[in-house]
Amino acid sequence: MAGLDTKERILNAAEHFFARDGFHNTSLRMITGRAKVNLAAVNYHFGSKEALLKEVFERRLIPLNKIRRENLERVRDDARKKGCKPNVRDVMHAFIEPTFHFMASGPEAKDFIALIGRALSEPDDTVRNIFIHIMWSLFILLVEILADALPELPKNVLFWRLQFSMGAMAHTLHISQKSFPEHHAFMNIISETEIDSLIEMILKYITSGLEAS
Amino acid sequence: MAGLDTKERILNAAEHFFARDGFHNTSLRMITGRAKVNLAAVNYHFGSKEALLKEVFERRLIPLNKIRRENLERVRDDARKKGCKPNVRDVMHAFIEPTFHFMASGPEAKDFIALIGRALSEPDDTVRNIFIHIMWSLFILLVEILADALPELPKNVLFWRLQFSMGAMAHTLHISQKSFPEHHAFMNIISETEIDSLIEMILKYITSGLEAS
DNA sequence: GTCTATAGATTGATAGAC
DNA sequence: GTCTATCAATCTATAGAC
Lengths: 213, 213
Known about the structure:
Chain A is mostly helical. Chain A has helices spanning 6-21, 28-35, 41-45, 49-82, 88-103, 107-119, 125-149, 155-175, 185-192, 195-210.
């Protein structure tokens, strides 16, 4: 954190605590303490705690969603060129892969991944609304392409299966940082799982669930 | 809330706010205000805010898990009698159905369901640890029976697929009380979905994902 | 831009009268 | 068991010196 400027140090520290303890359970003093900046610096640079949270999300999600959108549009356009339906596995891969690979890109990335893994289920609507607002248009694009890929599936069934998939995804991102009680054999399994095989496993699971007869 | 005694009124009010706003974002004053009891009554009857949370969980989870355990053991014993493997769908039905049907049992039940739908992904470990401690032995039983049902599946793959299923389930319980941005057609789909068809949909999705080749 | 100091509000918990 | 009153700690946010 040495060479970074104040704003970035605050963002990194906030990301860490928001991910580990949640938004309301993190105080500005914890953040400024870890970032080694003055307490007043948060309000000087960001205006409020909530505006800080918004920037924590946007710093990572805007570039990440740009990649996801490009991936999704490519899958859709390729299918159109070939005159066939998009492949469900390809669609979900386009959506999922950037997030999971970002997770493996470094230790600070893990903080953020744990945060978005829980964003949909945050208790109060502060976090949830900021997250959904950023994600919504991309989610609609995903729904539309999946509807092309699974034209025979009733819309409400597609909606629910996509929600199941979002839940599976969010929970997976979330627990990648958590521990389990007792010294159970499963504990090691998590840490030993490589990121590529995890992507492979969740893609197979989700694709199978989405395509169920 | 009129005829109920103080302790039960506090439990109901706490359940409501813990589910809606989360543990740390709920104050004892909110709880006692809704329950129409004195502020000091919480510490008199429960000892602390955290002990109150524990009782909120236990009041519903202990009877619910008793049913789930009986269901699971019945599925396992039936399969043993017949000398065949347990059926994956039957196993997951035994685990899932009591929760979803409890959800439909009344308006207060919805508060609790939203709470456990988020328990696994709560920001801080207060809520999560209490929940996991109550659920752990049942979860292990579920894992063991599923391992019998899917003997050819590597243990780490089974573990992850079960985690995906838990995520799907938790997210589904959680969003059953939430709204989505904009007036999107999907909004109506949620509220119109009947509980039995929701159970059917999630069972089909999860079973298909667990059994994927 | 960074600091100290503090305002102003809210919190969980408790003491003690009734 | 229920009440009032209050403590001690915490929080976000800001004012003002440097």
